[in-house]
Amino acid sequence: MSERAIGVFDSGVGGLTVLKEIIRQLPEEDIVYLGDTARVPYGTKSPQTVVRYALEAAAFLVRHRVKMIVVACNTASSVALPALAERFSLPVIGVIEPGARKAAAETCIGRVGVIGTEGTVKSAAYTAAIHRFNPDIEVFSRPCPLFVPLAEEGWADHPVARLTAEEYLSPLKSHEIDALVLGCTHYPLLKNTIRTVVGESVRLIDSAEETARMVAATLKSSGLQRTEPSGKRAFFVTDVPTRFEKVGGAFLGSILQGVEQVELDWI
Ligand code: DGL
Question: How many C-beta atoms lie closer than 10 Å to residue 115's C-beta?
Fold first, then answer.
């Protein structure tokens, strides 16, 4: 079992920011990554639809005999973890809890901002998770949907991104937060712009880094760490791979090749 790959899925390229961290922290592990590019975005869809998509994506990874599933998508993590845990018997890790834990630990004044897709913010999953760590923390959430296309367009440091960030983030700034959770796979790409707008005193919490730490810790505690270093990576998408390969390189920080198109079975 320990020599099997880690399965990672997202609605598209975004989960590659999580994968990048997993590879950085666990270079010896094999990876099977699925981007559900035919059905992206998940962030604007209903919870019922996202749960179904997540079950179908996870079933694909299980057929590839992975040893663990990482839900590298905030929207899917915010609504689908209970259904995934019920259906599959292998460890399932989402991105919400690791980010929430870090936010609860990092805030000094107990005022945390959370930004994400409409779906993630509506689910209030981050608020609930932060309150599980510390019920006294005040959480202020805001959807920032335009950050997703800006990141994919390569406009993370463009003046348009700066204006958009000012518009989205000024209400959060007025709540005098001292920590801000980047609760969407795409937002780490906009870190510089977000930092400029919120200022140096606000800690930016990157769920990707924290999730990779949790993946490493879970592999260790469940005896699933590889014994022989390998590092093979396989990438699958549900639409033609062209755009994924082009845009995904910036998210992963390395060239993406050999991406294969697949169909998911309906659940
Ligand atoms: N990956 C999604 C997330 O982290 C963002 C893109 C989408 O809406 O599908 O929520």
Answer: 26
Domain assignment present for 155: yes
* Ligand 1 atom 2, closest CA: 73
Give residue 131's pLDDT: 98
CB atoms within 10 A of CB 178: 16
**Closest protein CA for atom 6 of ligand 1:** 41
144 is catalytic: no
Among 180, 206, 232, identify where a domain stops: 206
10 CA closest ligand 1 atom index = 1
Q: Calculate mean pLDDT across residues 170-187.
A: 96
Do the domain assignments include residue 215?
Answer: yes
pLDDT of 110-140, one tens digit each? 999 999 999 999 999 999 999 999 999 999 9
From 148, 207, 239, the mutation candidate for ligand 1 (largest count of ligand atoms within 8 A of CB) is 148
Q: For residue 267, what pLDDT is reported?
A: 80
Residue 266 lies in a domain: no
pLDDT-derived band at 240, boundaries 50, 70, 90: very high
Looking at the fold, whether 100 and 89 belong to one and the same domain comes out as no
What pLDDT is attached to residue 266? 87
CATH number of the domain bearing residue 21:
3.40.50.1860
Structural domain that includes position 199: 96-206
In-domain check, residue 267:
no
Note the pLDDT tens digit of each residue in 1-15: 999 999 999 999 999
Ligand 1 atom with the smallest distance to the CA of 119 is 10
What single-letter amino acid sits at 188? Answer: P
Active site residue 73: yes
- Tell me the residue type at 149: P
Structure tokens at 102: 């870090």
Among residues 177, 206, 235, which one ends one of the domains? Answer: 206
In degrees and rounded to multiples of 5, residue 199 shows phi and psi of: 90, 165
d(CA 225, CA 111): 37
Ligand 1 within 6 A of CB of 145: no
